[in-house]
Design brief:
Layout (H helix, E strand, L loop, with lengths): L2 H29 L9 H15 L3 H11 L4 H13 L3 H11 L5 H14 L3 H14 L4 H14 L2 H14 L4 H13 L3 H10 L4 H10 L10 H6 L2 E2 L4 E2 L12
Antiparallel strand pairs: 1-2
Length: 252
């Protein structure tokens, strides 16, 4: 083969490499993550208890229970990553989440990485991780809501709108997504639409005003990070804004 022809072949191959990589990624996404191995009933019971402890915001206690249980499975590692993130131990949490991206917990691991990035004001990285989570868990209302919130923080209001509406249509009881949608309307200058959404979902005037007050989206203070990481409701008005803390509803 002459030199000119060889150069043409090399150029062809270099142009095709990105397409081959994209095709491989598409096949992997279509195949989905591997299935989780079955756990014993005893391990399942312990993990469900640890999940409840995490849901109550007792991340240090969850870590203690995980140490005592000595369960070596992807769901247990995911709980540990969540607990580490919620206690501000970002580096070990990130390492665990990255390990889990090639396991049966891959979708929730990418969600965790997105939450971790968002807590550190890394909005572009957060949207990238949460996009991966959304691709792996396309009908999970909490993931789509988190992705929408991260997009809003990043400044992509149109895509954020689509994701938040999707989250609400998937689960009409996703209060975080509803409140974040109202916040997005205020950020877009759509005050009347914000009020209409509030009426549609029976949001009180006091709650609506609180959401409007938060629509300035200031940078997180250290004192706010725990509340943000849990994505919970606070006060008598039960206002929920921010981003979700992922939980395993069912442990296989």
């Amino acid at each position: 083969m002459n030199k000119a022809r060889w150069s043409q072949c090399v150029l062809c191959i270099s142009l095709l490499l990105p397409a081959w990589a994209a095709l491989a990624d598409a096949k992997q996404a279509k195949a989905g993550p591997p299935a989780c191995e079955q756990v014993t009933q005893e391990d399942k019971t312990q993990l469900e208890m640890i999940g409840r402890v995490l849901a109550e915001g007792k991340a240090y206690a969850a870590l203690a229970f995980l140490d005592a249980a000595k369960i070596d499975s992807p769901p247990a590692k995911l709980y540990r990553a969540h607990a580490l993130r919620q206690t501000g131990q970002f580096q070990p949490a990130s390492e665990l989440y990255h390990q889990l991206t090639s396991t049966c917990m891959s979708g929730l691991a990418y969600q965790g990485l997105g939450l971790l990035a968002e807590m550190q004001e890394q909005h572009e990285a957060a949207t990238s991780y949460l996009r991966s989570a959304s691709n792996l868990l396309p009908v999970d209302s909490r993931v789509r809501g988190d992705y929408g919130y991260a997009l809003m923080r990043f400044g992509d209001t149109q895509t954020a709108l689509s994701e938040l509406l999707t989250a609400i249509e998937l689960d009409g009881n996703n209060r975080l997504a509803i409140h974040n949608l109202i916040m997005l309307m205020y950020k877009m200058g759509q005050d009347e639409k914000a009020s209409q959404i509030a009426r549609d979902f029976n949001i009180s005037d006091a709650s609506l005003q609180s959401i409007r007050d938060e629509s300035g989206m200031p940078a997180f203070k250290d004192s706010q990070r725990q509340q943000f990481s849990l994505g919970g409701c606070y006060g008598n008005t039960q206002i929920c804004t921010g981003i979700l803390s992922p939980r395993l509803e069912v442990v296989q």
